Amino acid sequence: MLVFVINQNKKPLMPCKPSKARKLLQAGKAKVVRNTPFTIKLLFGSSGYTQPVIAGMDTGSKVVGCAAIANGKVLYQSEIYLRENVSKKMEQRKMYRRTRRGRNTRYRPARFDNRGNSRREGRLAPSIRSKLEAHFREKMFVESLLPVTGWKVELASFDIHKITNSEVSGVGYQEGDLKGFYNVKAYVLDRDGYTCQHCRGKSKDSRLHCHHIVFRSNHGSDAPENLITLCETCHKALHNGEFKLSGSKSKQTCN
């Protein structure tokens, strides 16, 4: 365990041992400025000597990992869990706004064409911007504790098409499973032979639905592997809890 130290000008210095920090506090040469992580501020002038400190960050969409080392010793490490409720809160705000503006109150000028922010070049969606700003906040926080001399950031770049088909190359990237179909729904219906995958057409219901195996509310995707064709009769029965889907592949079995 180490105690972080900043000088009189709030510039970070090298951390010290708890015993050293305790002596400085007892002698009145330092004061506590933060409890978590425990940080003290020197009340006297110091030489300002520091060592090279390298910080690293593992970026992510849900969890961010961060650490800092000096002379092969870990000085700081943390995990930051990013917000996942931004979109839902915006939907809630939208609902309250519509309710408020729909009331029979005094005249309000039209506000449908004043969204300049949404047309700004380089604009990021609020949920993405929230995650990006969380990365920068952690970076600034680490730099406020330690005299960081350099950063190493792990940027994950995945070729999803290559993962599913290791032999893909060139124009093959443009010739995926959805080639020739209007959208994902059209592909799923064709893949399943325009037949309900539960009753196999026994219900004689011609109205078909593309059902999400893992619900969108549970972070299920719109990928074909998460969609299955069900007739409207079976679709309603499924949501009423009369049967359950088993498995997670595109071809499902129903209990």
Compressed to H and E, one letter per element, the order equals: EEHEEEEEHHEHHEEHEE
The proportion of strand residues reads: 15-25%
What does the overall shape look like? Answer: elongated
Q: What level of helicity do the residues show? A: 25-40%
- How would you write the strand order of the largest sheet? 2-1-4-3
Stretches where pLDDT falls below 50 for ≥5 residues?
A: 248-255
Which whole number gives the mean pLDDT? 87
> What structural category do the secondary elements indicate?
alpha+beta
Main beta sheet: strand number and arrangement? 4 strands, mixed
Radius of gyration: 28 Å
Count every helix, treating DSSP H or I runs of 4 or more residues as helices.
6
End-to-end C-alpha gap: 54 Å
Total strand count, please?
12
Compile the SSE list and pairings.
Blueprint: E1 3-6, E2 12-16, H1 18-26, E3 30-34, E4 39-42, E5 53-58, E6 63-70, E7 73-81, H2 86-101, H3 126-145, E8 148-154, H4 160-164, H5 184-191, E9 208-212, E10 227-231, H6 232-239, E11 245-246, E12 253-254
Parallel strand pairs: 1-4, 5-8
Antiparallel strand pairs: 1-2, 3-4, 5-6, 6-7, 9-10, 11-12
Features:
four-stranded mixed beta sheet, nucleic acid binding, 255 residues, RNA-guided_IscB-like, HNH nuclease domain-containing protein, alpha+beta, 24% strand, zinc ion binding, HNH_nuc
Question: What would you say this structure looks like, in words?
Answer:
By secondary structure, this protein is of the alpha+beta class. Among the domains are: 3-42; 55-83 and 130-154; 184-250, no CATH class. 26% of the residues lie in helices and 24% in strands. The chain has helices spanning 18-26, 86-101, 126-145, 160-164, 184-191, 232-239, and strands spanning 3-6, 12-16, 30-34, 39-42, 53-58, 63-70, 73-81, 148-154, 208-212, 227-231, 245-246, 253-254. It has a 4-stranded mixed beta sheet, with helices on both faces. A 4-stranded mixed beta sheet has the order 7-6-5-8, with helices on one face. Strands 9-10 form a two-stranded antiparallel ribbon. Strand 11 (245-246) and strand 12 (253-254) form a beta hairpin. The longest helix has 20 residues, at 126-145. The two termini are 54 Å apart. Mean pLDDT is 87; it is low at 248-255.
